[in-house]
Amino acid sequence: MEELSRTPVKKAPKVIKDRIILGIDPGTNVMGYGLIKITDNKPEMLVMGVLQLNKFEDHYLRLHKIFDRTLSLIDEFLPDDFAIEAPFFGKNVQSMLKLGRAQGTAIAAALSRDLPIFEYAPLKIKMAITGNGRASKEQVADMLRRELRISANDLLPQLDATDALAAALCHYFQTNRPQMDKPYHSWKDYMAKNPQKVK
């Protein structure tokens, strides 16, 4: 019997398509949104902002505004993925219900444009961005500023915007980030291995 040659086949490197991710931090008082663009495995911020809803007394009008703004962001930036912060469980049932409605409304807008939906718990997002599931919103914002090279002047005072941006970046880290060749064991370790981001 003739023996077949077993020449190893070299696998082509994984080609990751450039894409845009829309992140949403749902809320019925303030909705945060952020978009990042991935080019050659490098994320950069496109835009972030907030939708102020507390000026509208009617709860259903707020939901309408959430739907319209989410849809307008999708139509303007044509994202490939939709990442949203999942509601957290709290003691106030009414607040949880309203938050769930806000999240569902934003998701409905994304579904109407056939966008794939990805939900991430707040702890998961904080862990992905800072390495600490108990990080403060301010720590998340500071890490985003370093990771996405955002000018301090471009950061908004409302942390709902950076929370939304964090959801988008978390999704990128979870799905498409190249394997890290240097794992981090602590915040100090991260800073030591990334001196260019300490500035």
Overview of this structure, please?
The chain is α/β, with parallel strands linked by helices. The protein has a single domain (19-178, 185-197), classed as Ribonuclease H-like superfamily/Ribonuclease H (Nucleotidyltransferase, domain 5), CATH 3.30.420.10. The protein has helices spanning 59-77, 93-111, 122-130, 137-147, 159-175, 187-193; strands at residues 19-25, 30-39, 42-52, 81-85, 117-120. It has a five-stranded mixed β-sheet with strand order 3-2-1-4-5. Helix 1 runs parallel beside helix 2 and helix 3 (122-130) crosses helix 5 (159-175). The termini are far apart.
Topology (SSEs and partners):
Elements: E1 19-25, E2 30-39, E3 42-52, H1 59-77, E4 81-85, H2 93-111, E5 117-120, H3 122-130, H4 137-147, H5 159-175, H6 187-193
Parallel strand pairs: 1-4, 4-5
Antiparallel strand pairs: 1-2, 2-3
Helix pairs in contact: 1-2, 3-5, 4-5
How would you briefly describe this protein structure?
By secondary structure, the protein is α/β, with parallel strands linked by helices. Helix content is 41%, strand content 19%. The protein has helices at residues 59-77, 93-111, 122-130, 137-147, 159-175, 187-193, and strands spanning 19-25, 30-39, 42-52, 81-85, 117-120.
The count of domains is 1
Model regions low in confidence, pLDDT < 50 over at least 5 residues: 1-15, 178-184
- CATH classification, class level: Alpha Beta
Give me the number of helical elements.
6
Q: Report the portion of residues in β strands.
A: 15-25%
CATH topology: Nucleotidyltransferase, domain 5
Strand tally: 5
Radius of gyration: 19 Å
Kindly report the name of the CATH homologous superfamily.
Ribonuclease H-like superfamily/Ribonuclease H
Main β-sheet, in a few words? 5 strands, mixed
Helix content, binned percent: 40-55%
What oligomeric state do the depicted chains represent? single chain
Shape: globular
Give me the secondary-structure category: alpha/beta
Order of helices and strands: EEEHEHEHHHH
CATH architecture: 2-Layer Sandwich
